[in-house]
From TrEMBL:
Keywords, alphabetical: Hydrolase
Domain of life from the UniProt record: Bacteria
Organism: Paenibacillus lautus (Bacillus lautus)
Domain Beta-lactamase-related: 27-371
Name of the molecule in the record: Class A beta-lactamase-related serine hydrolase
Keyword match DNA damage: no
The keyword Hydrolase is annotated on this UniProt entry: yes
Record InterPro entries: Beta-lactam-related (IPR001466), Beta-lactam/transpept-like (IPR012338), Diverse_Enzym_Activities (IPR050789)
Length: 384
């Protein structure tokens, strides 16, 4: 570990003490049984480095334990909201198809019932729509149409724009708005308009069957008498076939750092190699407008006490802020229930991806403190 960490610190231009502390925190949580394994991906001033530890699947029903590698695909859970749904919605706004004020019911008429007629795209993005947080779609024996009917007919839990209720349902609706607008399934839209342009080569909403060794295992599932491996963990997403706006993305740490590069470049698609940077700036290619990137990462919920939400992103000071203590007031990020996170601090040109499968042993394990420790250590390593 020592040699790899020293080389990584030098490669990133970070202080070795902080990089070592981040890796040591991961090793402690693995030893404590919080998660069987983890991948840390760090992007600093355009340079990337990865640290892997533990097992993607420590006890498969068939075969030998599978160690974590740099290319292990993790179930990203709610990172789907910001890595799939958010950029596609922002692109539609850039293209003049939608606005933040577009009523969801204009795009999906069946959604406009039970007080939801005036809910906007912007409110769905910021979780201020008043929609309830969650809904059981998977245990009723419903077909796909019945599940969507249940989502669209759900009553409000609060008056719109008065509370932040972190809602999977809102992003399910946004996913359908994308499909309606682009006339493409969400997985195809993501591949064409986000993953391929950014070089997110492994990222997918449709995992390949029969390649379980490529995926970090999540929770044990009684129906298959095994841990889920390359099968989406979220029950709603699984019931709907895995292609959803709120969950379902599988990706490597490298994929997510490619995505972070675009945000640090304020919507531009940057060159990966430093030698190409001048040419890339001369003929700049963009995934999002600079205006869209700026709007997504500034506060939109200042009128609601105790919250700080951007468009999709969690901002510094929100109750779901996982940035730790040292990241700047301008940082933003998101977490996933399975144990994943992506945090970006533009002040330090820094992005941190931490992928764990903390639900492997059940849902009681928490990596909240681990995220804070890793983020503190790496931010502290800047300009050491």
């Amino acid at each position: 570990m020592e040699t790899h960490v020293k080389a990584g610190a030098e490669q990133l231009g970070l202080g070795i003490k902080g990089v070592k502390a981040a890796c040591a925190a991961i090793e402690r949580e693995i030893a404590a049984g919080t998660t069987p394994g983890a991948v840390l991906g760090v992007l600093h001033e355009g340079r990337t480095w990865f640290y892997t530890a533990g097992y993607a699947n420590p006890n498969p029903v068939q075969g030998q334990p599978v160690p974590v590698s740099e290319d292990t695909l993790y179930d990203c859970a709610s990172l789907t909201k910001v890595a799939v749904t958010l950029p596609l919605i922002l692109q539609l706004i850039d293209d003049g198809v939608l606005t933040l004020g577009t009523k969801a019911s204009d795009m999906l008429p069946s959604f406009g019932t039970a007080g939801k007629e005036e809910i906007t795209v912007g409110q769905l993005l910021t979780h201020t729509s008043g929609l309830q947080a969650d809904m059981n779609l998977h245990s009723h024996g419903w077909d796909r149409e019945q599940m969507w009917d249940a989502v669209f007919s759900a009553p409000l839990a609060a008056k719109p724009n008065t509370e932040v209720i972190y809602s999977d349902l809102g992003y399910l609706v946004l996913g359908r708005i994308i499909e309606r607008s682009l006339e493409l399934p969400l997985d195809q839209a993501f591949k064409r308009w986000v993953a391929d342009p950014l070089g997110m080569h492994h990222a997918t909403l449709t995992p390949s069957p029969g390649q379980a060794h490529r995926y970090a295992a999540t929770e044990h599932e009684e129906s298959i008498q095994d841990h889920l491996c390359g099968i989406v963990h979220d029950e709603k997403a699984r019931a709907l076939g895995g292609v959803c706006g709120h969950a379902g993305l599988f990706a490597t740490a490298g994929d997510l750092l490619q995505y972070a590069r675009m945000w640090l470049a304020q919507g531009a698609i940057p060159a990966v190699e430093a030698a190409e940077a001048a040419e890339a700036r001369a003929g700049e290619s963009r995934l999002l407008s600079r205006a869209a990137a700026a709007a997504a990462t500034r506060p939109h919920t200042s009128h609601i006490q105790g919250t700080s939400r951007g468009l999709g992103w969690v901002l510094k000071g929100d109750k779901m802020d996982a940035s730790g203590d040292w990241m700047s007031p301008h940082c933003y990020g998101h977490t996933g229930f399975t144990g994943t996170s992506l945090w970006i601090d533009p002040e330090s040109d820094l992005a941190v991806v931490l992928l764990t499968n903390r639900v492997y042993g059940g849902r009681s394990s928490s990596v909240a403190q681990l995220r804070a420790q890793v983020h503190n250590a790496l931010k502290g390593a800047v300009a050491w």
